[in-house]
Amino acid sequence: MAYDLREPNSLFTTKLQWREDGKMYPLRTAAYDTSFKAVISKALEEDHQFAIVAISNVSSDIDSSETYQLVSVNEAGIVIIWAVINEGSTRIIDHDLGLRPGAQLKMTQTSIIRSDGFVYSNLNSSRKMVVNCMIMVPMNPAQFLLGTNRGTIISFVLSKAAKLIGPKIYRNNFGY
User: Fold this and answer.
1) Into how many domains does the chain fold?
2) Which of 22, 79, 151, 175 is the most buried (most CB within 10 A)?
3) Domain that residue 44 falls in
């Protein structure tokens, strides 16, 4: 889900009182919701059935608030790259099921990166491997590291054009 904090508070009629200061805050609804993707096709169902464990923005040389990218990873190690588009008008956009009527923030799934089935194949074993964190490599903004509950680190790049620095998988020797 994505919330557009640029939308005026007056659009949201339901209010919630904050306990600490007693102020009333609007209860916002998501401008864009991707939950429908889990049921529209069998292939997408597999990619969207696991819990998301981390989200990161992708740094860019272009300073644009109209379009930017987000990277999400789920516990199976499936990385999804999203383009976030801020529409300037309230026109009808495609037939996008995730867009709330009147909202101006749209997300488009641009690619999926699967970690060679390494994590996914270990999900059904007795010692279940789960991805639990993601971080961008500071020297290479197109490269990310995934950490697992079994001490394995998986390295990936956002596109084939980007260079991978270091090995693809780091494993520990703790007897797992």
Assistant:
1) 1
2) 79
3) 9-160
CA distance 120 to 102: 38
pTM of the predicted model, to two decimals? 0.72
Looking at residue 90, its pLDDT comes to: 47
User: DSSP string of 15-80?
Assistant: EEE-TTT--EEE----SB--TTHHHH-HHHHHHTSSPEEEEEEPP-SS--SSEEEEEEEETT--EE
> Pick from 155, 159, 157: which is nearest to 146 by CA?
155
6 DSSP assignment:
T
The pLDDT tens digits of the residues spanning 116-134 come to: 655 555 555 556 788 899 9
Of the candidates 51, 35, 43, the one whose C-alpha atom is nearest the C-alpha of residue 2 is 35
Per-residue tokens: 109: 């799934």
Residue 133 lies in a domain: yes
* Rg, Å, the chain Cα set: 19
